[in-house]
Amino acid sequence: MHALGVATVEDAERLVQASTLSHIKVGLSDVDGVMLGKYIRRDKFLSALRGGLAFCDVVFGWDLDDQLYDNTKYTGWHTAYPDAKLRIVPSTGRRLPLEQGPGGEDMLLFLAEFEGPAAEICPRRLLHRTLDRAADMGFEVYAALEYEFFMFRETPHSVRAKHYRDMENWTPGNFGYSMLRSTVQGDFYRKLLDMCERMDMPIEGLHTETGPGVLEAAIAVDQAAAAGDKAFLFKTFTKALAQQNGLMATFMAKWSHDHPGQSGHIHLSLRERKSGRSAFYDESQPHGMSATQTAFMAGVQRYLPEFMALYAQTINSYSRLVPGYWAPLDATWGMENRTTALRLIPGSDKSQRVEVRIGSADANPYLALSAALASGLHGIEQGLKPEPMVQGNAYTQQFPAHLRLPTTLWEAAQRLRESEAARHLFGDAFVEHYAATREWEERQFRRHVTDWELARYFEII
């Protein structure tokens, strides 16, 4: 429970009734991890806290550009885009300091999730079904996500006027961990840190990364349900804060071939619900790695090629996965090894964990978390053993074909569609719908001619 003290419907009712706000904001996640939603008048909001909302299911029927899918079964012209039932989640209520009501009171924001048939493809519900699975196995899950994102001195209008070329970076050159940059640009840093504190998604560490105007933010660890919400909120409102300050933040996986891509790493650990002890730490074993963590790591590794579409969900995601740019190419693991897809981080009862390094910043945090956790839990259920631990630079080594990761979104979608494990863990409805949306995305890309093709072929071929 966060700073507002909202845990139940009754808590949310008291908060809204004491408010001077005429409308409350409600947000939800589509399959791409984009926050959609609306303002709701307070009387309707109070009614919806107990009775739910009707919300058009087109949010699962269109893409990032509001173009309607023609290949999905769940919704489309064949269903006439009916309303689906949306449940407001009281415990997600928080203040939104980026906007105020007429009386100067900070806006109230609540997250929501779908019920009924729509719940089968709702990203937030997918994560919570996976967390229920963990609880049934006797585990409590903790997670922390960290994001890299580039900042520009641009606006939504200016980038379009420039056709996304010759954009002005927030700061020039490479300057990782720069104290100079963070001091000179301290006003924005303070605004970002303050916003995240006030919205109950505190940043544990914030610094410049290698590249012009790139930052990395590590969100503090929490129970995985809250961690998913915090990552989802962080991406949306970091972009909103930037635009309010004449800047733009992008979480694209790779916006330029001249610079490294942007990651969305996931740190995961399990604790035993009965004893409260770490399920990952065993001081008697090498690197403190318990049998449970070993099997968990093996599960994530085993199913990473099949679940890749959940970690890398856009065409652009696969531009990041090239040698030498801090992005793994195979389903590998190593101890404190930043060239592998999975990094064992040895520590103590409190800190022993695994870092899933394959994901890009553009991934839907609910889906990426679900993929990592579900595959790890399945590894425990099956008693899997990981492949040999990688020593040294994984980029220069050859690995068995079954560890090779998909190299395109189309391939990743096919691997997901064909995965028996995915259907077992996530359900047929989700797998069919999500794979179809990724196939649609690939088809939209194929309809376009790129600048690279023009420059390469126009005159010479």
UniProtKB/TrEMBL annotation:
Report the SUPFAM superfamilies cross-referenced here: Glutamine synthetase/guanido kinase
Domain GS catalytic residues, every copy: 123-461
**The keyword rRNA-binding is annotated on this UniProt entry:** no
Q: What's an example of a GO molecular-function annotation for this chain?
A: glutamine synthetase activity
| EC primary class | ligase
Q: State the superkingdom.
A: Bacteria
Give the keywords, sorted: ATP-binding, Ligase, Nucleotide-binding
Q: Which GO terms describe its biological process?
A: biogenic amine catabolic process; biogenic amine metabolic process
Enzyme Commission identifier(s): 6.3.2.-
The answer to whether the entry has keyword ATP-binding is yes
Pfam families listed in its UniProt record: Gln-synt_C
Similarity comment: family membership: Belongs to the glutamine synthetase family.
What protein is this chain from? Glutamate--isopropylamine ligase
Gene name in the database record: ipuC
